[in-house]
Amino acid sequence: GASESWRRFDSAKVYTADLESGLHYLLRVELASHDYLEGEELSIFKDFVTLVAKLYPGGGSVVRLMEALSDWLLSLQGRRLVYQNVLDLVDNKMRVRQCVPGGGVRWVGCQGSRAGLRGYPCSLWTLFHILTVQHAAKPTALENTGGSREAAPVLQVMRRYIRTFFGCQECGRHFEQAAAAGLDQVQNPDQQILWLWEQHNRVNSRLSGTLSDDPLFPKAPWPGPALCATCHEEKNGARWNRDNVLVFLRRHYGASNLSHRHAI
Ligand code: FAD
Questions:
Q1: 34: helix, coil or strand?
Q2: What is the mean pLDDT of the chain?
């Protein structure tokens, strides 16, 4: 049952197990509903793979897999991509992970109190928060890629990925609306970090108390005062101290706060 496999974790940390499980799910399950990719879909997938290859922190097997995928996608020169070929490459590169029970996914910070809660969508948010923070830390990493001239390259790739591939279509519509209404105001990497944080909090407040809300992890404005006291303020009607929120996000989603463990 679920109880025997519950792993205690620290919610002040970010776990690479969640990120790897999320990418595993994305490549093996989410994409598997497409027999092949071509045109617009293929270029969106390619941009996503390139983004992760360039910005995922710490090197390691994820970056090697994404680089291999990216090289191979470039060598296709825009021809139609047969999904089975993606799967073959992933199988080849991710052989170790196949040994993990549950078909290769092991949630830690993204565990839900029962199946169907948290997991993959939690890992996607986490991944993109990390990528916005890494982009601010290494703004030149995306030079010579498609997004290098966009003001919010991480969010643009996220927007297109979510709109095109994310299994929750209602989520895709909501996110697209928010992006259409506000992304053009994002002009630099710090604003990109804060925009995603703010948008995530808007989703949290919309979902609070609904069926997708895990009772063990109720949706609330984040970070709460226990995680970041200085992020909150009661001054001039402002609720957040945005400068401190930015400092907090850079630290929380920074490379040195990533844990490679599977439990506390
Ligand atoms: P999540 O909201 O997934 O958050 C994961 C972790 O991120 C949290 O545990 C916390 O550590 C951290 N976090 C929380 N808030 C913030 C923040 N503001 N900034 C930075 N980090 C934060 N579900 C729907 O039912 N309807 C929707 O319209 C919808 N839209 C979505 C749009 C996107 C782009 C994504 C990725 C998911 C969407 N979802 C939607 C799913 C939903 O947002 C949650 O991911 C899901 O319900 C699982 O929630 P969770 O408790 O794991 O926390």
A1: coil
A2: 91
DSSP class per residue in 80-122: -EEHHHHHHHHHHH-GGGGGSTTTT---STT--SSTTSSSHHH
Residues of the chain with pLDDT under 70: 1-4, 94-103, 147-148
State if residue 83 touches ligand 1 by the CB under 6 angstroms criterion: no
Q: Cα–Cα–Cα angle for 226, 228, 233, nearest 5°?
A: 105
Which among 133, 96, 114, 117 has a CA at the least distance from the CA of 20?
96
**Cα three-residue angle 103-107-113, rounded to 5 degrees:** 110
Instruction: Return the biggest CA–CA distance within the chain.
Output: 57
Residue 160 near ligand 1, beta carbon < 6 Å: no
User: Which stretch of DSSP H or E encloses residue 129?
Assistant: helix 120-137
Say which DSSP state 222 is in.
S
pLDDT tens, residue by residue, 56-76 = 998 888 899 999 999 999 888
Residue 207 near ligand 1, beta carbon < 6 Å: yes
Pair of tokens at residue 65 = 């897999």
- Give the pLDDT confidence of 81-106 residue by residue, as tens digits: 999 999 888 888 766 554 444 457 88
Q: Which value does ipTM take for this structure?
A: 0.99
Contact between residue 89 and residue 72 where contact means Cβ atoms under 8 Å apart: yes
Query: What is d(CA 144, CA 101) in angstroms, rounded to the nearest whole number?
Result: 39
Ligand 1 pocket check: which of 122, 133, 164 to mutate, most ligand atoms within 8 Å of Cβ? 122
Nearest one of 223, 207, 203 to 215, comparing CA atoms: 207
* Global pTM value: 0.95
Q: Tell me how far apart the alpha carbons of residues 206 and 30 are, in angstroms, rounded to a whole number.
A: 25
